[in-house]
Records
---
Amino acid sequence: ETGVTQTPRHLVMGMTNKKSLKCEQHLGHNAMYWYKQSAKKPLELMFVYSLEERVENNSVPSRFSPECPNSSHLFLHLHTLQPEDSALYLCASSQQTGGSYEQYFGPGTRLTVT
Amino acid sequence: AQTVTQSQPEMSVQEAETVTLSCTYDTSESDYYLFWYKQPPSRQMILVIRQEAYKQQNATENRFSVNFQKAAKSFSLKISDSQLGDAAMYFCAYRSEDFGNEKLTFGTGTRLTIIP
């Protein structure tokens, strides 16, 4: 695998379910991100992890819980979601020190909450 | 806070022609980075081109070039000799840094259609 991978690619879940999204980067980067992409809205930054520590949480509801066990893996744990949480969730990584500042994105997980 | 505006939700261009996508931003910083990202229908976002604000010369990557007007806070993308594979959503993004942590602010995107 190369670049940034995300699983699953598609997820349908009920409002009472618990699920997790997984992201893995194979680029040796030291920062990882979760974004939410909804139709006709700018990408919304949800969480940033730099050197495995969470450095930003943009007022994201607690039903979204991130986890970064190491610099290559990032999870987004989901529970008791709402229909308005249906969106494309993108993971990205970058090298925050001495890098080109480019963020590399995964293919996304299309989440539908029923 | 920085904002990024893309005023063209949709654009179309004939194959082999040239198209320009517009982007404006608002910032009080003097040194920053700007990016254009492309998101094809398969959804993986990839970087098209990057511009460093302290560089006066406009960035160029093959058929892609930018017109960076720092005073006007404008950062347009020109695609020359458009190809069918250029069809995608294009996002303009501004990079800011806060206490050593970077953040990208994106515009709402422009959907580009290539007409054969």
Note: Chain A is about 0% helix and 55% strand.
---
Amino acid sequence: DTAVSQTPKYLVTQMGNDKSIKCEQNLGHDTMYWYKQDSKKFLKIMFSYNNKELIINETVPNRFSPKSPDKAHLNLHINSLELGDSAVYFCASSHFKQLNTGELFFGEGSRLTVL
Amino acid sequence: AQSVTQLGSHVSVSEGALVLLRCNYSSSVPPYLFWYVQYPNQGLQLLLKYTSAATLVKGINGFEAEFKKSETSFHLTKPSAHMSDAAEYFCAVRRGLTGGGNKLTFGTGTQLKVEL
């Protein structure tokens, strides 16, 4: 059973389109994240939700809108896609206050290519 | 702000040789430090973590790291490299527990290549 699953795994689209990436975790965690990995492999956090509440919102354009219908799901919707949005988007999950581990569990990533 | 710097974006070793991947941190408070590994076309997987319990931390797949406060370092080592160790390795630091859950700040990664 996949712990953190993302769909789709690959996404190729034209500039200006709107697209969504879905994420689900079956680990019983209460916190989920979106990270963006650029072409140089640099990983940067975008958003984090705890029990459906937004707790981290880094300086991400308004075109990106996360939605968490419940604590097991965190989706990412992107409007008016731009070339610079091409990247691999990783979903991750954890317990909110994990004193002893601080471990994030990552999905396999969704590679977005904007043409 | 807390951050980590990984020295060397690419490291190449021979199979059976020592692996040393460098990570230095910057933090005004005792940090929580992590090493993650990313195999091709996969997500990140935790290798090991430092949470102030012991300065020498052992992880999976024979890797270990030593927290050295005097050098602000948390270098990753493995005595003998295996072909299967070829991957991208990320050092990360966690911001405090207040606000943000487990927000990790990652280094820029080190690509490890293992040659026969």
Note: The first strand of chain A starts at residue 4 and ends at 7.
